[in-house]
Amino acid sequence: SRAFAEEIPVQPEAVVIVDMIGDANLNIHLEKNSDVAIRTEIWSVAERLGYSAQFINNEKFSMLDDHTPFLEAGIPAVDLIDFDYPYWHTTEDTPDKVSAESLKAVGDTLLTWIMEKPKP
Questions:
Q1: Quick one: DSSP state of residue 30?
Q2: Which CATH number goes with the domain that contains 36?
């Protein structure tokens, strides 16, 4: 992401990093380094769609992740990550752990957020 952020041809309105969001026990907390305005918009959409159980409205983690280079470049960015995933970096991190419901919650939320954004 660092190389991309340095050479990005067109400045986007925002960047959303979607990371580790497929497990059945989805708990995406507010990431402390993410852009507060974008974070607030996304969590508001999730709440309206009934996904408050998956999008937890409290800060839990402070991440230096793929969103960081964009923030450093002045581009609003958020990191949607469920860092409470016991199988991460183990041999048990297999496709059977992926939850269609979790993917739907994130997909519905982000699609709605994008569609409702005012067009420049």
A1: E
A2: 3.40.630.10
